[in-house]
């Protein structure tokens, strides 16, 4: 079976599962907080499963995220190029005074999944959820590009601190940013529901 057809089938099946669970939950008289938590867990679980699924086993020739990670590297390379001469990007690698490679988890997809799942689980009209999700994800992606650029300069000027900043400081910053983005998004969604 062709790779594109497999992806379409997987998306159709995922959509059908989400609709079935939503229909099963709907008649239950459960509190809105519990409903939100169940929908959040379902959305996040499905998105994490798609993100972590080993598509190579289905015959995909290369990692489905390769283009996405290369785009991240090009975007970060373009921003770095404004401040740092000699930046070159090849695939997902950024070459300069401190070479970097954008790999899974450098894209902060986990934070994006958690944020988007919370927005989509929120009880509000779907158009407002779509707008809140789009704007929040754009902000989180921009912040992550700035994080990558900052890590480059930490690597250039404070190499011994790179690991701590990369593995401890910036993950916390991204989580706090996603929580703040959700609070802003939830306020927007709540105002639209009133």
Description:
By secondary structure, the protein is mainly α. The chain has two domains: 1-64, no CATH class; 65-194, no CATH class. The chain has helices at residues 3-25, 32-52, 66-81, 109-121, 126-157, 162-193; strands spanning 88-90, 93-95, 100-101. Helix 4 (109-121) packs parallel to helix 6. It starts with a helix and ends with a helix.
Structurally, the number of domains stands at 2
What is the approximate shape?
globular
Low-confidence stretches: none
Structural class by secondary-structure content? mainly alpha
Biggest sheet architecture: 3 strands, antiparallel
The number of helical segments is 6
Beta strand count: 3
- State the strand order across the main sheet: 1-2-3
What is the rounded Rg?
19 Å
Note the run of SSEs as H and E. Answer: HHHEEEHHH
Give the helix proportion (percent range): over 70%
Integer average pLDDT: 85
Q: Characteristics of this structure?
A:
3 strands, 194 residues, 3-stranded antiparallel beta sheet, 2 domains, single chain, globular, 6 helices, mainly alpha
Summarize the structure.
By secondary structure, this protein is mainly α. The protein is 71% helix and 4% strand.
List the helices and strands and how they pair.
Elements: H1 3-25, H2 32-52, H3 66-81, E1 88-90, E2 93-95, E3 100-101, H4 109-121, H5 126-157, H6 162-193
Antiparallel strand pairs: 1-2, 2-3
Helix pairs in contact: 1-2, 2-4, 3-5, 4-5, 4-6, 5-6
